[in-house]
């Protein structure tokens, strides 16, 4: 009997070793992992920095072990094409960390399944179809006008507070206005209302904390059996406090009661509650989907515009060219509208260049292999997490001349699509998981940037000062130091009364 047990254990062990050897064979090269922790001890706060350094040694497709979980990272346009188009069907699921990803009941973190298809179709029809985008155009233009009025008000207060030249020495925090215009646009779209000032500030703080939590992790998130153990014996105080804070805000600002009825709400939420009452959507899905739209829509757009404004201040010639185009097409008697965008090719290039150099999510949200596939000549075993390094692809010298330079002109000679068709620049992803709000986001970026440049000229508070272009670690590429700039009336608009807000 003892010999039988020993033999059985030996056979099982041998089979497991053979399976592990097969499973790990032909996977991409990468840094040598340590037992249990993999390469976690080598990861920098900015994961993209670690991946970029390892790619210099091991090539454009690398294996990184997050604990016991295999992660494969690709950072060239050709490999991105294989992941997002050629093998899209097998690589469209999501890798999820249970504490941060809504258990997959939402749109962003759901696997590619009928539930995902249903939610995506709903969002596209109600919010992101060309018809819907056109229907909500006046809303975006109204919120952009409110942003300009807010800037004018602050400049006027500076001017009236003392010496006329005071405004020259008092920069504005650009993020304040960008965050407000984007959040107000999304909240009116989703809820039919704007958040109160304190609600908006609390929302921004919660989202910032969530991005930081999502961009970090513990060993318990990356070792499969520790994930199960931790759910029983470990309490993540930071996350639990964050979850309570988020729920409290949501119940106060969005839906006060769990049994909310459609008649008490407007916007997209009303449609979701109607479906909930018909038992077509669960309470958890409604809440998760609303949170998806608010967070993904508000922060990602504002982040890119802030980076763009920083680059414009660094390169005054870019600002001059954009303003000359705006003055020529629009003049000085009215504000820019979305219908003007098609006549402003340089402005469109400016938006594309900002997305190339500063994508809001440097790493595309993690895909997961639903079956074993081959990418770039290497095996991607079933269950593997796959990252597409969007930032590295956008800065690849094989595709872009002087890739670190902000130069919108590079898009003038070639009609390059940024919505997932051209894999050299994929800020919105591609394939089955492409961002459904890409076109609306592009319109809003162009509208906001165009009006900021048409009405004001922007410069650094201290001549010759180097702007801090570093980014905070986390899911989003957020400027570490909020951009501060001097806003003066653009030539031709020599005073408040020259800006037509009627």
UniProtKB/TrEMBL annotation:
Which keywords does this Swiss-Prot/TrEMBL entry list? Answer: Heme, Iron, Membrane, Metal-binding, Monooxygenase, Oxidoreductase, Transmembrane, Transmembrane helix
Q: What is the annotated localization of this protein?
A: Membrane
The organism sits in which domain of life? Eukaryota
Residue positions annotated to bind heme are: 435
Name the principal localization, coarsely classed: membrane
An example of a GO molecular function for this protein is: heme binding
Q: How does it sit in the membrane?
A: Single-pass membrane protein
Secretion signal, residue range per the UniProt entry: none
Please name the Pfam families in this protein's record.
p450
Q: What is its EC number?
A: 1.14.13.-
Transmembrane stretches, by residue range? Answer: 6-23
The family database entries (Gene3D superfamilies) matched by this protein are listed as: Cytochrome P450
GO cellular component annotations of the record: membrane
What cofactor does this one take?
heme
Spell out the PANTHER family in the cross-references: CYTOCHROME P450 98A9 (PTHR47944)
Query: Family per UniProt?
Result: Belongs to the cytochrome P450 family.
Report the protein name in the record: Cytochrome p450 family 98 subfamily a polypeptide 8
Q: Which organism is this protein's natural source? A: Euclidium syriacum
The top of its lineage is: Eukaryota, Viridiplantae, Streptophyta, Embryophyta, Tracheophyta
Record gene name: CYP98A8
């Amino acid at each position: 009997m003892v010999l039988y047990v020993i033999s059985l254990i030996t056979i099982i062990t041998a089979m497991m070793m053979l399976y592990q050897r097969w499973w790990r064979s032909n996977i991409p090269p990468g840094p040598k992992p340590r037992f249990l922790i993999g390469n976690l001890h080598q990861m920098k706060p900015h994961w993209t920095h670690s991946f970029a350094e390892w790619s210099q040694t091991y090539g454009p497709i690398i294996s990184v072990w997050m604990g016991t979980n295999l992660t494969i990272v690709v950072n060239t346009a050709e490999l991105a094409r294989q992941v997002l188009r050629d093998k899209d069907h097998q690589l469209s699921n999501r890798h999820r960390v249970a504490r941060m990803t809504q258990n997959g009941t939402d749109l962003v973190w759901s696997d590619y399944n009928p539930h995902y298809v249903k939610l995506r179709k709903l969002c596209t029809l109600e919010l992101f179809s060309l018809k819907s985008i056109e229907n909500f155009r006046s809303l975006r233009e109204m919120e952009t006008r409110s942003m300009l009025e807010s800037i004018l008000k602050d400049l006027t207060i500076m001017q009236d507070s003392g010496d006329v030249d005071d405004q020259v020495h008092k920069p504005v925090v650009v993020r304040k206005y960008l965050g407000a215009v984007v959040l107000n646009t999304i909240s009116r779209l989703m809820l039919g209302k704007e958040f109160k000032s304190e609600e908006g500030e609390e929302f921004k703080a919660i989202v910032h904390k969530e991005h930081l939590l999502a961009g970090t992790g513990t060993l318990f998130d990356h070792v499969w059996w520790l994930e199960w153990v931790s759910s029983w014996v470990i309490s993540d105080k930071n996350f639990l406090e964050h979850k309570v804070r988020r729920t409290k805000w949501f119940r106060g600002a969005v839906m006060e009661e769990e049994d909310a009825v459609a008649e008490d709400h407007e916007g997209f939420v009303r449609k979701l509650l109607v479906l909930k009452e018909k038992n077509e959507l669960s309470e958890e899905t409604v809440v998760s989907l609303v949170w998806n739209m608010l967070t993904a829509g508000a922060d990602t757009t504002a982040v890119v515009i802030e980076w763009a404004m920083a680059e414009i201040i660094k390169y005054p010639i870019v600002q001059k060219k954009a303003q000359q185009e705006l003055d020529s097409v629009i003049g000085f008697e009215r504000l820019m509208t979305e219908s003007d965008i098609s006549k402003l090719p340089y402005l469109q290039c400016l938006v594309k260049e900002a997305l190339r150099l500063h994508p809001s999510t440097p790493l595309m949200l993690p895909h997961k292999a639903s079956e074993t596939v081959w990418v770039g000549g290497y095996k991607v075993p079933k269950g593997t997490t796959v990252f597409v390094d969007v930032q590295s692809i956008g800065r690849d010298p094989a595709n872009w001349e002087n890739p670190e330079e902000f130069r919108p002109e590079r898009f003038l000679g070639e009609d390059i699509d940024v919505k997932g068709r051209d894999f050299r620049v994929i800020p919105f992803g591609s394939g089955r998981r492409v961002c459904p709000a890409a076109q609306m986001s592009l319109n809003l970026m162009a509208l906001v940037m165009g009006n900021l440049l048409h009405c004001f000229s922007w410069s650094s508070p201290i001549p010759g000062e180097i702007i801090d272009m570093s980014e905070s670690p986390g899911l989003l590429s957020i400027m570490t130091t909020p951009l501060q700039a001097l806003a003066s009336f653009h030539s031709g608009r020599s005073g408040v009364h020259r800006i037509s807000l009627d």
